[in-house]
Amino acid sequence: MSLSADLAFRRGDLDLRVALDVAPGAVVALLGPNGAGKSTTLELLAGILPLDDGRVELDGVTLDDPAGGVHVRPRDRRVGMVVQDYLLFPKMSVLENVAFGLRSRGLPRDRARAEAREWLGRMGLDGYERRRPGELSGGQAQRVALARALIVEPRLLLLDEPLAALDAGTRPAVRAELRRHLAGYAGCTLVVTHDPLEAMVLGDRVVVLEGGRVVQQGAPAEVARRPRTDYVARLVGLNLLTGTASGRTAELPSGAVVALAHEARGPVHIAFPPVAVTLSPRRPEGSARNAWPLVIADLEAHGDLVRVTADGAVPVLADVTPLAVADLGLEPGGQVWASVKATEISVYPA
Amino acid sequence: MSRARLTLAVTAAALLAVACGGDDGGSAAPPAGAPATTPAGTVTVLAAASLTESFETLAGQLEDEYPDLEIVYSFGPSSGLVEQVLAGAPADVLATADTSTMDDAVAGGVVDGEPVIFARNTLALAVPAGNPDNVTGLADLANEDLRVAICEPQVPCGGAAQRLLDAAGVTAAPDTLTTDVKEAASLVALGEADAALIYVTDAAAEGDAVEIIEVADAVVNEYPVAVLADAPNPEGARAVVDAITGEPGRTVLAEAGFLEP
Amino acid sequence: MSRRTADLRVPAALLIPAALGVAILVLPMAGLVARAPWGDLPSILASDEVLTALRLSLVTATVSTGVALVCGVPVAWLLARTALPGRSVLRGLVTVPLVLPPVVGGVALLMVFGRRGLVGAWLYDTFGVSLPFTTEAVVLAQVFVAMPFLIVAVEGALRTADRRYDDVAATLGATPWTTFRRVTLPAVAPGVLAGAVLCWARALGEFGATVTFAGSFPGTTRTLPLEAYVAINAGDSDVAIVLSLLMIAVSVTILVGLRDRWIGASQ
């Protein structure tokens, strides 16, 4: 079972052009800021919205081909969906919710309920059959929604922000559990999220969507190590610069020059973590060849450290200890020198 | 109809379907013996529904004669009009379709002086044009298959109908009891009722849409008119009553099929 | 969240017209109570005419509400959930009876369903069916006047209901009919109930269209409001007052009872 989709859709401000391929049994995390077109992508794949152009093929079956006049209705697609607020039918019991898909496909009530009971057991929800959705915790509701979607054996499972409705305390446990359930599911899965950690943990592959376009995709570690856009860099907590390399140096659009540890040529991305940045009141001496005079724009608590936003020819984020902030007398508007060792910098083609 | 009319909501149902005829008012002679003072102002007249066409014509003549006079009518079932007067409706003149309803008003002390009988009316068996169901007489009203409209027994035309049917020994099988004779007339004119017992005058007012089947011993109703005790415009009211009971009224009412008192 | 204590300083510019408004609404009903012939009340209520009219009113209003539910809920669904061309025109048309004088509705019904009407003539010639002066005509008149209340209430409920539930049901394989029956309808049930109650109350009070189209005959077409009208025109104001009180009592009981028990509980 595999998904191959080439989506073109324009509505209002959104101009979506996305090509997606999901291997059998794989989980692809669709990561992007609000308004990037993530949920629209899911609605296109579910058949709720019609494609303007392109093609959707699932498991060898063409679901959408506007040019060829093909549009399979949502109820015939075998595409399951779990959304952020789960949308459990509020007037039905938990058992009826899970059995709904089988009943809709014409299965007798008793058989549908027996199978639903089995799925609830698999989800660790024995004894919850008669509850109403309003009586469940967020994590329980998510498992019911998952069981409701999986019971009809969809070939493609779409999860739209499946953890966003949970409070921070329960999220890690539910996330781990969701990962376990997805591992046991044979079909393709697409998880939409704006949380990089969720994308990294749940996804075998991460696809980053910005402004209706795929801006980066790859294995989670690859995306985390080598961000290609400011949005991804911010998500994964790296400084990202773009410049043109010639040998051991790269020139930024501002004219500033960055020293590199290895040879590189042509347009490059330059990434380094904020903890690798050292701040000092005067031009530092020693091995660090990259040093730039900057103006502090902002100070913000960041875990145990303080994140310093500094502007200048080379804008950087730096993580320093509260002690260093006090010692250096850092405050917005103040002058400071930022330095990074060339060995801390990773360079890759843009 | 350009004249302002006080159309009470309760009578709207009955009046709506009524064809408004007899508003030409040109042929009759000016009223003789006009009063010494010229009547003016607004005169509100509550009148039985069966008087609609005749009184509209009469008002046209009177208003032509006295430019400062304005006559406002409220037509409806006589018993309902008496209820309104007893409840304090501000009106000048009351004209009912029988003496028993007027007696109620007199007993209630709302009438100034003695009511005067100004016309008589007889009932007619009315059928739609062409008499599609071949109605021949009162006995047909007992036919369950025939759709019969009769006035509600408590209103004058209904009381008259009941007396007529009793005298003829017929137990009618009505399909609807209207509170207003005009409503029954309209139903026949529209062809929704196969037969109705209505006043000769109302049948005549419907023109060609209605045919009249002769009925022997048709009961006679007497129409009294009176000035009301609390009339806001007693002078105008007296002028209107004089016109109704005098020559102008006689002429117009006779044209409409009323009998002289 | 703690409730704010009510501020009792109401500006006179609001208080005086508000008091007047309440008086206009409440005084007539209080007047009926004051003028009621309490001594004769039991005998009037137990009279054949009143009981016949009451039974006819309850039966016709209930049947009318049933017809309005069967036909009106689908109309509301069409208006709220489909991209039907000319939908706003359709909405305007089906809600016209809300503002139309009922008498006009009665005349219109007579012109269409009367024995010589557009549809009525065909019905009569083909099946020998004639609607005016029948209990069916009463129901038709009541549906004409009262169904828009139901349509408006249900359409509002459908608009505020979350359509994504329908999408989820579709992905689970449900047909639109299954989705409507098992998902949409339960979700808007309070709105449907509210609409049905309004519709029933309006049907119970229907007068103008009924008297014009269905006529007035005891046991067949003479409902409570018609009986009250006949009574006042026959000079029998005591009966009219008792009938009016009866209708007020029935309406108030139903409205208050339903609001507290069902509509209020589910909000």
TrEMBL record, chain A:
Pfam families: ABC_tran (PF00005), TOBE (PF03459). Residues 285-349 form the Mop domain. Keywords: ATP-binding, Cell membrane, Ion transport, Iron, Iron transport, Membrane, Molybdenum, Nucleotide-binding, Transport. GO terms for molecular function: ABC-type ferric iron transporter activity; ATP binding; ATP hydrolysis activity. Residues 2-236 form the ABC transporter domain. InterPro entries: AAA+_ATPase, ABC_SmlMolc_Importer, ABC_transporter-like_ATP-bd, ABC_transporter-like_CS, ABC_transpr_FbpC, Mo/tungstate-bd_C_term_dom, Mop_domain, P-loop_NTPase. The keyword Repeat does not apply. It comes from the Bacteria. GO terms for biological process: molybdate ion transport. One of its GO terms (cellular component) is membrane. This is ABC transporter ATP-binding protein. It comes from Jiangella anatolica.
From TrEMBL, chain B:
GO terms for molecular function: metal ion binding; molybdate ion binding. PANTHER family: MOLYBDATE-BINDING PERIPLASMIC PROTEIN, SULFATE-BINDING PROTEIN. Keywords: Metal-binding, Molybdenum, Signal. Pfam families: SBP_bac_11 (PF13531). Coiled coil: none annotated. PROSITE patterns: PROKAR_LIPOPROTEIN (PS51257). Residues 1-19 form the signal peptide. It comes from the Bacteria. The gene is modA. Gene3D superfamilies: Periplasmic binding protein-like II (3.40.190.10). One of its GO terms (biological process) is molybdate ion transport. This is Molybdate ABC transporter substrate-binding protein. Molybdate binds at S50, S78, V181, Y199. It comes from Jiangella anatolica. Belongs to the bacterial solute-binding protein ModA family. NCBIfam families: modA (TIGR01256).
